[in-house]
From TrEMBL:
Region feature (Disordered): 446-470
Domain Dynamin-type G: 87-328
GO cellular component, one term: sarcoplasmic reticulum membrane
This protein's UniProt keywords: Glycoprotein, GTP-binding, Membrane, Nucleotide-binding, Sarcoplasmic reticulum, Signal
Endpoints of the signal sequence: 1-20
Gene3D superfamilies: 1.10.268.20, P-loop containing nucleotide triphosphate hydrolases
Molecular function via GO: GTP binding
Organism phylogeny: Eukaryota, Metazoa, Chordata, Craniata, Vertebrata
Pfam families referenced in this protein's UniProt entry, alphabetically: Dynamin_N, EHD_N
Protein name as annotated: Sarcalumenin
Residue ranges with Polar residues bias: 446-455
Domain of life, source organism: Eukaryota
Keyword Nucleotide-binding: yes
Native source organism of the sequence: Seriola lalandi dorsalis
Cellular compartment(s): Sarcoplasmic reticulum lumen; Sarcoplasmic reticulum membrane
Amino acid sequence: MKGSVSFCCFLSLLLLQATAEEEDIISVLRDRSHIDETFRLAAEEKAADYAAAIQRLRKIYHTSIKPMEQAYKYNELRQHEISDGEITSKPMVLFLGPWSVGKSSMINYLLGLNDSPYQLYTGAEPTTSEFTVIMHGEKIRSVEGIVMAADSSRSFSPLEKFGQNFLEKLIGIEMPHKLLERVTFVDTPGIIENRKQQERGYPFNDVCQWFIDRADLIFVVFDPTKLDVGLELEMLFRQLKGRESQIRIILNKADNLATQDLMRVYGALFWSLAPLINVTEPPRVYVSSFWPYDYAPDTSRELFKREEISLLEDLNQVIENRMENKIAFIRQHGIRVRIHGLLVDRYVQTFKEKMSFFSDPELVFKEIVDDPDKFYIFKSILAKTNVSKFDLPNRDAYRDFFGINPITNFKPLSGQCSYMGGCLLEKIEKAITNELPALLSSINSGKQPGLSSCEATGCGEKPKNRYRKN
């Protein structure tokens, strides 16, 4: 009897201690109200206007850009096919960095998932072994990678090319969250320098490149104890070349250090990254501690709070400008497709000019593709069209391109016109110079985008062919 009483007393003490510890944790939880205020989650969005703009953008792409893209097989040159899912997708925020630096904890904090059944697992050891996509859904559920890749309405169907081993390491989490209505987060496996690429079972760097190419904002997270740069991190920064404007460096867990030590770590971080980021203006660095608990005592809490708010405003700017960024992306894509079409047309014309009755077609074209400068392929494009020399693709890429696509498979631009469809070049130039800028102006002015007068009524004008001789 006495033993039973003692055991009950012991259990009661444990419960009291656990309750007291829980109250202590709750008392040191950080206030999250500034997150909702910065993202204005309580405000209602103009969903109808956004949907109308997306539909208009899709129409411009499918009618004016994609026809030339398909006619001259642009996707085989750039390996980047734009799907409807990518056009309609929300901005993507990608988290990269070494293992156990706080990437998953940061996502939990931003979404308020701590102590919920669907919080991302965190720990001092490497915990995230999958690419985890956190996105909006009507109810909380997980989605397998093979399902995400098979769903054409999503923007992840191209990931099938990385194989089944990777799809088993891809997982989606859907939840009804106001912030996820406007943005999608992607958590990645931590970089482990002593692990070889082959041990992952899939092309890790290629998968990272796919997400990097589609990310609107890239957070590269470090903590004060993991500043060393190895081969895998060096390769990652090589993949980030050209995306410096999207990169934000985060020095996380900063409240673990005294102010003087923090200054030394900040300098060491720049020293380590300087050889990897070869740009005039380095990426913005945020120094704070991104998790739900209060800052450690006797640290620069006011500085950390201001840094956190600056990062939230930076993220909110990407969310607010998502439609403008998407229009600019499609326009930039259209410019590349146009340049590609002009170059293929020039190769075709040069080939026809150099061919004679006794010529060997393979030898003639080999001479052209091996030394395009001899035949002024690229210089003629610069001289006759409004193209910047900095936008021209690599000459060697066309040797590989025509290696699998014979020149005889392509028509010149003068033959790419039809009475009903118009001319491919004129349509893509109209989209680049008129339609997409007009859509952007309508977004900025708050005017709901609609159909142009010709699209609404049908102008009935026969398209002009600038390449056909009169």
